[in-house]
Every structure is written in structure tokens, then in C-alpha cells.
């Protein structure tokens, strides 16, 4: 069960890291062959970072809510 939880967090983490790399390359003007414009590469990179970190944050918040570790700060309505 812990292996599944680890994989659930590692895969979005890798996606976020790829997003950071795409944004860095777009900032320095290195265009990957997959994209046709540097701005598109930067936007896709930003999207990957937001989705990756958001998934990890949501997973941790869900786990903490389930174990009653949020102390009422993030109550679901």
C-alpha cells in the first residue's frame, strides 16, 4: 500500500520537475522540437508545475483530513 502511495506522489513530482525544466528552457530561448513557439513551451511548463504541485498538495491535504490532523482549518462543507 505504501508503494502505491509513493508512486502516486512521485509521478506528479516528475511532471512538476519537467514543467520547471520547460520553463527554464523557454526563459533561455531553447526550443524543444515538440513545441513550435517558446511562449507555448513556457505556458505548458507552467501548467505542468501547477498541476503537479496541486496534485501533491491535494493528496497531502486529503490524507491529513482523513487522519484529523488539520485541526479544523480546512473543514469540508
What is this structure's SSE topology?
Elements (H helix, E strand, L loop, with lengths): L1 H26 L10 H29 L11
Describe this structure in words.
There is one protein chain. By secondary structure, the protein is an all-alpha fold. It has one domain. Helices cover 71% and strands 0% of the residues. It contains two helices and no strands. α1 packs antiparallel against α2. The radius of gyration is 16 Å and the shape is elongated. It starts with a helix and ends in an 11-residue tail after the last helix. The mean pLDDT is 91.
Structural class of the helix and strand makeup?
mainly alpha
Spatial extent as radius of gyration: 16 Å
What's the oligomerization state? single chain
| Overall pLDDT score | 91
Shape: elongated
The total count of helices amounts to: 2
Count every beta strand, where a strand is a DSSP E run of 2 or more residues.
0
Cα end-to-end separation: 29 Å
The number of domains is: 1
Largest sheet: none
The percent of residues in helical segments reads over 70%
- Proportion of beta-strand residues: under 5%
Q: In terms of per-residue confidence, which ranges show pLDDT below 50 for 5 or more consecutive residues?
A: none
Order of helices and strands: HH
Amino acid at each position: 500500500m505504501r508503494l502505491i502511495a509513493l508512486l502516486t506522489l512521485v509521478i506528479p513530482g516528475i511532471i512538476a520537475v519537467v514543467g520547471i525544466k520547460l520553463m527554464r528552457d523557454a526563459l533561455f530561448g531553447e526550443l524543444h522540437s515538440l513545441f513550435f513557439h517558446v511562449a507555448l513551451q513556457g505556458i505548458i511548463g507552467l501548467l505542468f508545475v501547477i498541476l503537479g504541485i496541486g496534485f501533491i498538495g491535494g493528496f497531502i491535504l486529503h490524507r491529513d483530513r482523513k487522519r484529523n490532523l488539520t485541526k479544523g482549518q480546512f473543514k469540508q462543507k
